[in-house]
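help with these tokens:
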Amino acid sequence: MANQSMTDVAFELMSKKKKAIPFRKLWEEVVAIMGYSESVALNKLSTFYANMSLDTRFALVEDGKWDLRSRHTYNETHRDLSDILDDSDDENEFEDETEENEFDEEDEEKGRKDSYSSEEEY
């Protein structure tokens, strides 16, 4: 087991199970198999979660449970993000930034003129 990664251990565990399991239960089983102390486990927890998220063998399914991606259809494991991304919001944001930049440039130019005129008075 010493040569296996945490995600490889998780994959073996999940291959033996018939259904999705909560992340906490999976993590506890991986920690036990790897033989991590409590402090080492705490330091590795976020890395394990990140690796699970990036590993294409796993899928986060309902209620924060994890399962093997091979047990699920594409539609079960992929979220439609088109509702989140709204192109009109991006366009308005860009327009706002452009207007702010033009205003800043005008103020900056006015500031330069004011400083020149005040120098000339002396």
